[in-house]
Amino acid sequence: PAHLKEAVSIDLAPASVQLHGPRSSQRLIVTATLKDGSTHDVTDHVAFSLQNPRLARVQGGNLLPAADGTT
Predict the structure, then answer these.
(1) Phi, psi of 4 (to 5 degrees)
(2) What is the Cα 42 distance to its own chain's centre?
(3) Dist CA 60 CA 44 (whole Å)
(4) For 12-40, how does the pLDDT look when each residue is reduced to its tens digit (9 = 90+)?
(5) Using CA atoms, how far apart are residues 35 and 59, in angstroms rounded to an integer?
(6) Distances 53 to 30, 33, 41, 57 between C-alpha atoms, Å
(7) What is the C-alpha separation between 18 and 45, in angstroms, rounded?
(8) How far apart are the first and last CA of the chain?
(9) Alpha carbon of residue 14 to chain centroid
(10) What is the DSSP annotation of 17-63?
(11) What confidence tens digit (pLDDT) does each residue in 54-71 have?
């Protein structure tokens, strides 16, 4: 979206996630703060990249476990 060019910061929530078990999941929310101070949920407009994609994956804004481990 055009208003994202006005973003001064991007935040991810939650900042820390622990998944317990193969059926667990965590919804990720990405919020952009614009120059005017307004905030917008931009989760559907970002690409997620994981430090270790063998351990988890993001599907539709949800973090899902792929294997046991920590990162």
Answers:
(1) -70, -20
(2) 10
(3) 8
(4) 999 999 999 989 999 999 999 999 999 99
(5) 30
(6) 19, 28, 24, 6
(7) 24
(8) 32
(9) 8
(10) ----STT--EE-EEEEEETTS-EEE-GGG-----S-TTTEEEETTEE
(11) 999 999 999 999 998 887
Quote the distance between the C-alpha of residue 13 and its chain's center.
7
Torsion of CA 52, 44, 10, 6, to 10 degrees: 140
pTM for the whole structure: 0.83
Rg (CA), the chain: 14
Residue 26's DSSP bridge partners are 63
Residues 6+ apart with CB under 8 A from 23: none
3 DSSP assignment: G
The Cβ of residue 43 has, within 10 Å, a number of other Cβ atoms equal to 17
Give the model's pLDDT for residue 8.
Answer: 96
